[in-house]
From TrEMBL:
<keyword id="KW-0808">Transferase</keyword>
<dbReference type="InterPro" id="IPR022474">
    <property type="entry name" value="Thiopur_S-MeTfrase_Se/Te_detox"/>
</dbReference>
<protein>
    <recommendedName>
        <fullName>Thiopurine S-methyltransferase</fullName>
        <ecNumber>2.1.1.67</ecNumber>
    </recommendedName>
</protein>
<feature type="binding site">
    <location>
        <position position="66"/>
    </location>
    <ligand>
        <name>S-adenosyl-L-methionine</name>
    </ligand>
</feature>
<keyword id="KW-0963">Cytoplasm</keyword>
<comment type="similarity">
    <text>Belongs to the class I-like SAM-binding methyltransferase superfamily. TPMT family.</text>
</comment>
<dbReference type="InterPro" id="IPR025835">
    <property type="entry name" value="Thiopurine_S-MeTrfase"/>
</dbReference>
<feature type="binding site">
    <location>
        <position position="10"/>
    </location>
    <ligand>
        <name>S-adenosyl-L-methionine</name>
    </ligand>
</feature>
<dbReference type="InterPro" id="IPR029063">
    <property type="entry name" value="SAM-dependent_MTases_sf"/>
</dbReference>
<dbReference type="InterPro" id="IPR008854">
    <property type="entry name" value="TPMT"/>
</dbReference>
<dbReference type="Pfam" id="PF05724">
    <property type="entry name" value="TPMT"/>
</dbReference>
<keyword id="KW-0489">Methyltransferase</keyword>
<feature type="binding site">
    <location>
        <position position="45"/>
    </location>
    <ligand>
        <name>S-adenosyl-L-methionine</name>
    </ligand>
</feature>
<feature type="binding site">
    <location>
        <position position="123"/>
    </location>
    <ligand>
        <name>S-adenosyl-L-methionine</name>
    </ligand>
</feature>
<keyword id="KW-0949">S-adenosyl-L-methionine</keyword>
Length: 221
C-alpha cells in the first residue's frame, strides 16, 4: 500500500485494525521467548497499539516505527506521556518513558538503528502489506535485526480470493518461504476465529484463522 493509503486511514479515523485490548497471542506466548529483562523490543508498523504498553509492563523498552504522526501523537497522549522529539535520518524520533517511536518508513531502517533490539513483535504489520512488499519487508526491515533476535509474528489465514486485503492472508507456506533463509519459524498456535470476526463473514469469507509464529534469528556466517 502507498503511504497515502495509511495517512488517509489515520486522518479519517478508519482504524478498525486498532484493538482496544492487548493481542491475546502476545500475552499467551511472549514469555516463551525468554528475553532478558530490560531488553528492547522492536514493534514495526506499530500504530498506537496497546501491545507496546503491555511489553513495557514485562520490563522491556520498546522501539516502534510508524508512518503516521497522528498515530504516534495519539499513542503518547493516550499513555499520558509527552515525548521528547528530535530529527534523525530515519524520521522524527519520539521518546518518553520506556517508549521510542520513529515517525518514518520501516523500509528505511538499518542495522545501526535496530542493533539494540533483542526482540521483535509483529501484529498486523506483515499482513498489512501486499505480497511484493512482504518480501521486501522481510529482506530489509527484519534483515536489519541483530543475529540473536527472537520474536513473535501473528498472521491471518483466509481464502484470499474471497476478500481483498489489507489485512492480507499469509499462509504457513509463505511464512516459511519468507523467513526460512534467516530465521527459524515455529508455529505455536493456530485458531479458527471466523465467529469472532463478523466483518470477514459479512464480506463472504468462509474460513478465517489466526496463527502465531515464534521466530529465532539464525546467526549469520
Ligand atoms: C494494520 S495497521 C497495524 C498497526 C499496529 N501494528 C496494530 O496492531 O494496531 C498498519 C500500520 O502500519 C503503518 N505503516 C504502513 N506502512 C508503513 C511503513 N512502510 N513504515 C511504517 N509504518 C507503516 C500504518 O500507518 C498503520 O498504522
Amino acid at each position: 500500500m502507498e503511504p497515502a493509503f495509511w495517512h488517509e486511514r489515520w486522518r479519517d479515523g478508519r482504524i478498525g485494525f486498532h484493538q482496544p485490548v492487548v493481542t491475546p497471542q502476545l500475552e499467551r506466548h511472549w514469555d516463551t521467548l525468554a528475553l532478558p529483562a530490560g531488553s528492547t523490543v522492536f514493534v514495526p508498523l506499530c500504530g498506537k497499539s496497546l501491545d507496546m504498553p503491555w511489553l513495557a509492563t514485562r520490563g522491556h523498552r520498546v522501539l516502534g516505527v510508524e508512518l503516521s504522526e497522528t498515530a504516534v501523537r495519539g499513542f503518547f497522549e493516550e499513555q499520558g506521556l509527552v515525548p521528547a522529539q528530535r530529527e534523525t535520518g530515519y524520521g522524527v524520533h519520539h521518546a518518553a518513558g520506556p517508549f521510542e517511536i520513529i515517525v518514518g518508513d520501516a523500509f528505511a531502517l538499518d542495522h545501526a538503528v535496530l542493533a539494540g533490539c533483542a526482540g521483535v513483535f509483529d501484529r498486523a504489520a506483515l499482513i498489512a502489506l501486499p505480497p511484493n512488499l512482504r518480501r521486501r519487508y522481510v529482506e530489509t526491515t527484519w534483515a536489519s535485526l541483530p543475529d540473536d533476535c527472537r520474536g513473535l509474528l501473528v498472521t491471518l489465514e483466509y481464502p484470499q480470493a474471497e476478500m481483498a486485503g489489507p489485512p492480507f492472508s499469509v499462509e504457513a507456506a509463505e511464512v516459511q518461504a519468507l523467513f526460512a533463509a534467516a530465521w527459524s519459524p515455529t508455529l505455536v498456535e493456530r485458531s479458527d476465529i471466523l465467529a469472532q470476526e463478523p466483518r470477514f463473514a459479512a464480506a463472504g469469507v468462509g474460513s478465517l484463522a489466526t496463527a502465531a509464529w515464534r521466530l529465532q534469528r539464525q546467526a549469520s556466517v
